[in-house]
Amino acid sequence: MSDAPLISVRGEAVLEAEPEIARLSVHVQSQESDRRAALDRLTERNQRCLDLVKSYGEAVERLETGGLSITPVLKYRRREGDVRAYRGTVWIKITVSDFGVLGELVARLGDLERTFVDGPQWDLRRDSGVYREAARQAAHEAVERARRYADALGSELVGLVELSDEGLGRDQGGPVTLAAAYGGAPGAAAADEPEPIDLEPATQIVRAAVEARFTVSPPDLGSR
């Protein structure tokens, strides 16, 4: 085991970056007195929603169905078997990479009958270069801090003993929530398309922190 003196430091970097993607969560619903009718209506509305999203082509990076349910709605909460209606719900997850169409897409989704839109949730891709740059800057800060300590002691950095990652994190902007009106005749469509909603991307805050230990040359404490 080396008897060389050690210096332990922490390096941190905080970067601001524009988001790369926006996530939308869409719930499409139906409610009918008959179970099969509720399912058929839900199928129609789900397809209408999917067709709308797919019409945006490559601007939509990912389109997924998160789940589907058909649930009986009871007339009285404490009495089993007394069904008033059946409610169907489909959960659709959308990832948008072209923010130029995002406001229009959100408005058109919110205009669909019995549709609830939650979002956008701004984010960076998992492999974004912003994370790598934050890690690089955090490691650089650790080296510079250790070098300043060594200089204050009349020492020089000799070697790296350990470098550990404290993890990465980010802050996100809050979502905008839209709900379409639940009234109106089934299948009714608005005469005109809704106006696009003006959405401002939320700046992403990326943090990286590392802990490092360095060996240093013997300090010259007498001259300090």
TrEMBL record:
Question: InterPro entries annotated for this entry?
Answer: 26kDa_periplasmic_antigen, SIMPL/DUF541
Gene3D superfamilies (UniProt xref): Protein of unknown function (DUF541), domain 1, Protein of unknown function (DUF541), domain 2
Q: What is this protein called?
A: DUF541 domain-containing protein
Q: Per the UniProt entry, what species is this protein from, by scientific name?
A: Actinomadura syzygii
Xref: Pfam families: SIMPL
From the record, give the transmembrane residue ranges.
Answer: none
What biological-process GO terms show up in the record?
DNA damage response
